[in-house]
Hints:
alpha+beta, CATH 3.90.470.20, two-stranded antiparallel ribbon, 5 helices, elongated, EC 2.7.8.7, Holo-[acyl-carrier-protein] synthase, magnesium ion binding, magnesium, cytoplasm
Amino acid sequence: MIYGIGTDICDIRRIAASVAQHGERFAQRVLADGELLTWRQRSARWPARGHSFLATRFAMKEAFSKAIGLGMRSPMGWRLCEVGHAPSGQPCIITHGALREWCGQRHLQFQVSLSDEKDYAVAFCIAQIVPPVRE
């Protein structure tokens, strides 16, 4: 059963401007530790790739917050929601701390998609209720 749907579009140029103005502090506020490491590596090789990476994660976290119906209020937090990848490469949501507990209590699982193209990043998230299997 669908719990909620969220989508977001982000202007990569806006993210680049935030990084130029605030430096790494902006990325540190938005990205979980694993994402921050990847962002640093990509930014060091090619800053534009770093901006795209940060923009897709920003958009996904916004879409996720809309799908779960909380927006950016507790227990939702930028760093408590992480975009990971399944072994197949498919993006997935990894939750941490209080957000993980909140989602677990509601038996939520997520289907996500993200993409970027030159100036924009877009993300889509479906939160679905998947009751535990009873034997």
